[in-house]
Amino acid sequence: MQMRREEATCNENLGAVFKSLGQYVKAKQFLEKALAISLEINDRQRVARCYVSLGAVFQSLGEHVQAKEYLLKALAMTMEIGDRAGEAASCGNLGAVFQSVCQYLSAKEYHEKALAIRIEIGDREGVAKDYGNLGTVFHALGQYVKAKEYHEKALTIRREIGDRKGEASSYGSLGAVLESLGQYVKAKEYYEKALAITMKIGDKEGEARANRNLGSVFESLGECIKAKEYLEKALAITMKTNDREGQASCYGNLGKLLQSLGQYVKAKEYLEKALAITMEI
Length: 281
Prior knowledge:
By secondary structure, the chain is mostly helical. It contains 14 helices and no strands. It has helices at residues 2-20, 24-40, 44-60, 64-81, 84-100, 104-121, 124-140, 144-161, 164-180, 184-201, 204-220, 224-241, 244-260, 264-280. Helix 2 runs antiparallel to helix 3. The longest helix has 19 residues, at 2-20. The relative contact order is 0.05.
């Protein structure tokens, strides 16, 4: 029994490492092994953890139906065994799944459940995450004032606990809300703060996103040369990190920008690249 438990631990830990590295197929393989052993030896806490982790992995792989299935199992089990942190994680991840398929009211319901539990158990990092997720949901629902309020709450906590990556994410989200409100100068200010932090902490994905957002806001301000410059920076980073989704977004934005500048041949080239990548992924 002890050897099997240790085997499950090793598989679970390897799954977590591969998940952190973005190698989701490998993470899935190890987590499924950990789950099978945990079911065999009736380790209910680990079973619940594996369900949560597998749900998150399937979500990252874009397999939303399977993600939902695993997370509902995780939610039922964490509630049964009284694992409040696991219950919050299950609710938060279910919210993210519903968000991904644009079911925003269901997403809101699960994020609110996660938030209530994390406030109760004193998980400050989790509370900030839930505020951020709810801000994104309200933004998608067109409730910009409420979105701004929730992102500001997330930002306050992240600054207090020293979560620099989360702080950058909040600045980016606030920039997006302000952009939607047509407050482009203020949005630019927040995106610049996000960019500065991501560069300082070496978050390449966040840096690419901040450059892309700055490209968008400069385009809205009519500063097309600056917009192009930032979008090209974002594209260069996504090429280095092999972020195919990010590349497609950059090519699409550059294509649209070049089209507005009357550079139709180049615009066509970029838009075709964006289309090819989106069809591939």
